[in-house]
UniProtKB/TrEMBL annotation, chain A:
Pfam families: TAF1_subA
GO terms, biological process: transcription by RNA polymerase I
Protein name: TATA-box binding protein associated factor, RNA polymerase I subunit A
InterPro entries in alphabetical order: SL1/TIF-IB_Component, TAF1A
Cellular compartments per GO CC: RNA polymerase I transcription regulator complex
Listed PANTHER family: TATA BOX-BINDING PROTEIN ASSOCIATED FACTOR RNA POLYMERASE I SUBUNIT A, TATA BOX-BINDING PROTEIN-ASSOCIATED FACTOR RNA POLYMERASE I SUBUNIT A
From TrEMBL, chain B:
Chain's role: Component of RNA polymerase I core factor complex that acts as a GTF2B/TFIIB-like factor and plays a key role in multiple steps during transcription initiation such as pre-initiation complex (PIC) assembly and postpolymerase recruitment events in polymerase I (Pol I) transcription. Binds rDNA promoters and plays a role in Pol I recruitment as a component of the SL1/TIF-IB complex and, possibly, directly through its interaction with RRN3.
Protein name: TATA box-binding protein-associated factor RNA polymerase I subunit B
Domain of life (superkingdom): Eukaryota
Organism: Piliocolobus tephrosceles (Ugandan red Colobus)
Molecular function GO terms recorded: RNA polymerase I core promoter sequence-specific DNA binding; zinc ion binding
Pfam families given in the database record: Rrn7_cyclin_C, Rrn7_cyclin_N, Zn_ribbon_RRN7
Start and end residues of each Rrn7/TAF1B N-terminal cyclin domain: 204-253
Gene designation per UniProt: TAF1B
Annotated signal sequence range: none
Keywords: DNA-binding, Metal-binding, Nucleus, Transcription, Transcription regulation, Zinc, Zinc-finger
GO biological process annotation, one example: nucleolar large rRNA transcription by RNA polymerase I
Domain RRN7-type: 7-39
């Protein structure tokens, strides 16, 4: 043993630190990466041909790292190269899996995803099943999570089959002779799916598609508690990374279950903190608005302003409608302070962000209803003298004419820049 | 070895219970029926016997089980000999005369073996006491096989001499048996007999043979023959695979197995470096106590006058510049026979960098003509352009700008192709090198894997793109008058940059800047290192161009330019401190 280790030491030749081998292979790698970036598949394949020699690198560290690099780059090339096909890819994947033991699982998983991408569901499933039986590195954590991923993807495939069968089932009549058989089949699939997915989602991570499918199945079979538990865990377990979708799934579930309003508010509150611009915020506002608690109603205003802070929502007519209505209500309800709280941090930039002359013209051209709502808000916040409001007032419109007149009155009465307030 | 040798050993074999023993090379007993090797060794009784047994051994060959695993017994220097043979053969194919291989290189090699005490001497350095057997393929040419008592007193020449015995030896030779019991001490961890020991050998005063050194030997022979190949040419041929170097061991005979420590010795994974080989050439020359080499005279290819002409043509500069280079050569004394001829024994500074010197002279001439300060060369180009437009019928004046544009394009293209070719270079040989027998199947499996993957990807590659190997050429750039796409400047005139003054011509440019102002006070003439940013872009371009041609570092060329300037302005140097900077250093 000792003798062998001693033999591994190869004396440096010529006093040069870095061998040309190392230099040319790293240049080769850059060329491959450049070719991939430029979508020059042919060139990439040419350089890849030479890069394979890193599998025989005398530097053991590099030699061990080579298969993964080669797999990643090679699979990219084979994915896009016009002369490549499924068979080539499969041969390549099988070869790479068997170089060293470290990469088997990872490559199997990626190979399966590739097959999925090409619609070869059966092959993907077979691949995953084979990979499941890989025993090397049994107690390592990396193997653990990879196995779970593999099982979960298998579960996802099974979910897909289940889903299809469920569709079939729904088309059949209960009295149909085939019903029971299909129902049983469906049940079997779901059992397999749940077994495969449940292990993965216990591990901290982002597992949206798995969670969704799993919950769907649980709900279908009436296991509401189970579903709720999964979703709650997924959203609230601190070990899991912060994931807005988790809260959305939970909220939608609660909505379906017609959960109490307070519960839904608490769920959406977290979503509000993570993604204040989400379209669910409008639903959130509605819930808050109807609440009995004053703090909720204040929050309702806050949420609306928050949504409209974002450029992606500036043309959201519902948001403006809500804001217009709610502002009026708030001001009528003598909660000027609430409005001022929100407006103070925004008065410097909202005018040019939303209420410029340019926007007035463009909004009116595009969507008169939207322009009206915005004008109302502008009037309330900036007074009847503001450009936006004045522009809209000047516009002649058959349907909205009356509304605009009413607006003018409200603005006069309630605008926060009104000297009487 | 003979059965008679082991008669004294009377025990029964533990494996087959027979009593019939022989002696291995290491002097241990082995059972001749089952080849089980024991730990018992024969006591050496009488040292007088040894020479006789050796001869007997050589005559009768080593009767051992033919185990294809181990192959022949061979020594590291035999490996190098084989490689030198291959290289000499390649040089012959390039057009060098056969005397290089048969006489010059062969003699150098023999002398080396003698000096390093590996052969042709009384007590060759062999640790195990075994004598090597002759390898026929190494001696495929009778020149190499015949050993007239050239430089040595021959007592036990390891490289066998007369034909008959050598033949019989080879045919009856059988390699060393491997048996499980003695695995631990027979895993020598190298295919060669002395591979492990060779790597560790550190004798003072002995120059150990390495792969780069084979090229030093080649160059010494070329120099001795005054062949028209410079060191940079030689190294470029190596890089282009015209001369075996990387993976040269692949062509060893099948039975010469390489593994373990041999990897480090023969499996080199770097191209030769100019400075490294240059140093080694001098080292070897000195070690071998060679006499003064044949004179390099004016009609020799390696003389700066001729080399300058060659390089001027190669970089598309006007032929008229040759007069100036000859002039500089004369003034600096670099054309003197004594300056140019390699004399290892004389303890003076060696100058065998003919190519670098020639190129440095050209750089100096360019500086004299164009100053290369990112200013004057362009204004002179403007003048040339104006003149050429007006006088289209005359011989055109050399336009630096035009030359730069054409040359830069060609240079960039060449360099890009070179870099791509290097990135694609396949280092690993078809015969994988492995550490030990345990490793062998793994190494072969890996190789198979690589070959399969390559086969798969070769279908994705456009087959027409892979061109065949280029034929070796001394010139990397070629310019002809007929080529209308790229102007050939050979015939252009330097009238634009020279002016007449009485009988002689002077350069229009009267200024000059030195590449370096400081030289070390010590004897080494060490110059300050080349910091690119301190110099003009034109100068950088010129240096990059020529360094690429010769495949050397720009700092090496810069150093040489400084040395040429030193010689040229020697008088100025000595009065540097007193005189003001009138004619010098606008920049340092």
């Amino acid at each position: 043993m000792i003798l062998q280790r001693w033999c591994y030491f190869i004396p440096a030749i010529g006093g040069k630190r870095k061998k040309d081998f190392a230099q040319t292979t790293s240049a080769c790698l850059s060329f491959i990466q450049e070719a991939l970036l430029k979508h020059q598949w042919q060139q990439a394949a040419e350089y890849m041909y030479s890069y394979f020699q890193t599998l025989e690198d005398s530097d053991s560290y590099k030699r061990q790292a080579a298969p993964e690099i080669i797999w990643k780059l090679g699979s990219e090339i084979l994915f896009y190269h016009p002369k490549s096909n499924m068979e080539t890819f499969n041969t390549f994947a099988d070869r790479m899996k068997n170089i060293g033991v470290m990469n088997y699982l990872k490559i199997s998983l990626q190979h399966a995803l590739y097959l999925l991408h090409h619609g070869m569901l059966k092959d993907a499933k077979r691949n995953l099943s084979e990979a499941e039986t890989w025993r090397h590195g049994e107690n390592t954590s990396s193997r653990g999570i990879l196995i779970n991923l593999i099982q979960a993807y298998k579960g996802l495939l099974q979910y897909y089959t289940w889903s299809k069968k469920k569709m079939e089932l729904s088309k059949l009549d209960k009295d149909d002779y085939a019903y029971n058989a299909v129902a049983q089949d469906v049940f079997n699939h779901s059992w397999k799916t749940s077994a495969n997915i449940s292990a993965l989602i216990k591990i901290p991570g982002v597992w949206d598609p798995f969670v969704k499918s799993y919950v769907e199945m649980l709900e279908f079979y009436g296991d509401r508690d189970g579903a709720q538990e999964v979703l709650t865990n997924y959203a609230y377990d601190e070990k899991f990374p912060s994931n807005p979708n988790a809260h959305i799934y939970l909220y939608n579930f609660l909505k379906r279950q017609k959960a109490p309003r307070s519960k839904m508010i608490s769920v959406l509150k977290i979503l509000y903190q993570i993604v204040p611009s989400h379209k669910l915020m409008l639903e959130f506002h509605t819930l808050l608005r109807k609440s009995e608690k004053e703090e909720h109603r204040k929050l309702g205003l806050e949420v609306l302003f928050g949504v409209l802070d974002f450029a992606g929502c500036t043309k959201n007519i519902t948001a403006w409608k809500y804001l217009a209505k709610y502002l009026k209500k708030t001001l009528m309800g003598n909660h000027l302070v609430w409005v001022q709280d929100e407006w103070n941090s925004r008065k410097n930039w909202w005018p040019s962000f939303h209420f410029s002359y340019f926007w007035a013209k463009s909004d009116w051209k595009e969507d008169t209803a939207l322009a009206c709502e915005k004008a109302f808000v502008a009037g309330l916040l900036l007074g009847k003298g503001c450009r936006y409001f004045r522009y809209i007032l000047k516009q002649d419109h058959q349907i909205l004419g009356k509304k605009i007149k009413r607006m003018k009155r409200s603005v006069k009465k309630y605008s926060i820049v009104n000297p009487r307030l | 070895m003979d059965l008679e040798e082991a008669e004294e050993f009377k025990e029964r074999c533990s494996q087959c219970a027979a009593v019939s023993w022989g002696l291995t090379d290491e002097g241990k007993y082995y059972c001749t029926s089952c080849h089980n090797v024991t730990e018992r060794s024969q006591e050496v009784i009488n040292t007088d016997l040894i020479p006789n047994t050796l001869i007997k051994a050589l005559n009768r060959g080593l009767k051992k089980k033919n185990n294809s695993e181990k192959g022949w017994d061979w020594y590291v220097c035999e490996g190098f000999q084989n490689i030198l043979c291959q290289q000499a053969e390649a040089l012959k194919n390039l057009g060098i005369g056969p005397e290089l291989k048969n006489d010059v290189l062969h003699n150098f090699w023999k002398r080396y073996l003698q000096k390093s005490k590996q052969a042709y001497c009384k007590n060759p350095v062999y640790t195990t006491g075994r004598k090597p057997t002759v390898l026929k393929d190494n001696l495929s040419h009778s020149d190499w096989a015949s050993e007239p008592e050239l430089l040595s007193d021959v007592s036990c020449p390891p490289f066998l001499e007369s034909g008959v015995e050598s033949q019989s030896d080879i045919h009856t030779r059988k390699p060393f048996p491997i048996s499980k019991a003695s695995q631990s001490e027979t895993t020598v961890c190298s295919g060669s007999l002395d591979g492990v020991e060779y790597s560790q050998r550190k004798e003072k005063g002995i120059v150990k043979m390495t792969m780069p050194q084979t090229l030093a030997f080649c160059y010494l022979s070329l120099l001795w023959q005054r062949e028209a190949i410079t060191l940079s040419d030689l190294l470029r041929f190596v890089e282009e695979d015209h001369i075996p170097y990387i993976n040269a061991f692949q062509h060893f005979p099948e039975q010469m197995k390489l593994y373990g420590r041999d990897r480090g010795i023969f499996g080199i994974e770097s191209w030769p470096d100019y400075e490294d080989i240059y140093k080694k050439t001098i080292e070897v020359g000195t070690f071998l106590d060679l006499p003064r080499f044949p004179d390099i005279t004016e009609d020799c290819y390696l003389h700066p006058n001729i080399l300058c002409m060659k390089y001027l043509m190669e970089v598309n500069l006007p032929d008229e510049m040759h007069n100036l280079t000859c002039h500089v050569v004369k003034m600096t004394g670099m054309g003197e026979v004594d300056f140019l001829t390699f004399d290892p024994i004389a303890k003076m500074a060696k100058t065998v960098k003919y190519d670098v010197q020639a190129v440095a002279i050209i750089v100096v001439v360019l500086k004299l003509l164009f100053l290369l300060d990112d200013n004057l060369e362009w204004s002179l180009s403007n003048l040339a352009e104006k003149h050429n437009e007006k006088n289209k019928k005359d011989k055109p004046w050399f336009d630096f700008r035009k030359w730069y544009q054409i040359m830069k394009k060609a240079f960039d293209e060449k360099k890009q192709k070179w870099e791509e070719a290097r990135a694609k270079y396949l280092w690993k040989s078809e015969k994988p090198l492995y550490y030990s027998f345990v490793d062998k199947p793994v190494a072969y499996k890996k190789r198979e894997m690589v070959v399969n993957l390559q086969k798969q990807f070769s279908t994705l590659v456009d087959s027409t793109a892979t061109a065949g190997k280029k034929s070796p050429s001394s010139f990397q750039f070629n310019w002809t008058e007929e080529d209308t796409d790229r102007t050939c400047f050979h015939g252009h005139s330097l009238q634009g940059v020279l002016k007449e003054k009485g009988q002689s011509l002077l350069t229009k440019n009267s200024l000059y800047w030195l590449s370096t102002q400081k030289f070390c006070r010590c004897y080494c003439t060490h110059v300050t290192t080349y910091e690119e940013s301190n110099y003009s872009l034109s100068y950088q371009f010129i240096l990059n161009l020529f360094s690429f041609l010769l495949r050397i570092k720009t700092s090496l060329l810069h150093e040489e330019v400084s040395l040429v300037e030193k010689k040229l302005f020697e008088k100025k140097y000595s009065v540097t401190k007193k005189k003001s900077r009138s004619k010098k250093a606008r920049r340092h």
